[in-house]
Amino acid sequence: MGKSVRETFRVPVDQLDPRARPLGPRDKATAAEEMVELGERLDQLQEALYAEAIGGGRRAVLLVLQGMDTSGKGGVIRHVGGLVNPQGLHIATFKKPTDEELAHHFLWRIRRQVPVAGRIGIFDRSHYEDVLIARVDELVPEDVWRGRYTEITAFESELAAQGVTIVKCMLHISEKEQAERLVARLDDPAKRWKYNPGDLDARAKWPAYQEAYAEALRRTDIDAAPWYVIPSDRKWYRNWAIAALLAETLTELDPQFPQPDFDVDAERARLAASGVS
Amino acid sequence: MGKSVRETFRVPVDQLDPRARPLGPRDKATAAEEMVELGERLDQLQEALYAEAIGGGRRAVLLVLQGMDTSGKGGVIRHVGGLVNPQGLHIATFKKPTDEELAHHFLWRIRRQVPVAGRIGIFDRSHYEDVLIARVDELVPEDVWRGRYTEITAFESELAAQGVTIVKCMLHISEKEQAERLVARLDDPAKRWKYNPGDLDARAKWPAYQEAYAEALRRTDIDAAPWYVIPSDRKWYRNWAIAALLAETLTELDPQFPQPDFDVDAERARLAASGVS
Question: Long-range contacts for B147-156 (Cβ within 8 Å, ≥24 apart)?
Answer without folding.
Answer: B148/B106, B149/B216, B149/B219, B149/B220, B151/B106, B151/B107, B152/B107, B152/B127, B152/B128, B152/B220, B153/B219, B153/B220, B153/B222, B153/B224, B153/B225, B155/B107, B155/B110, B155/B111, B155/B127, B156/B220, B156/B222, B156/B224, B156/B225
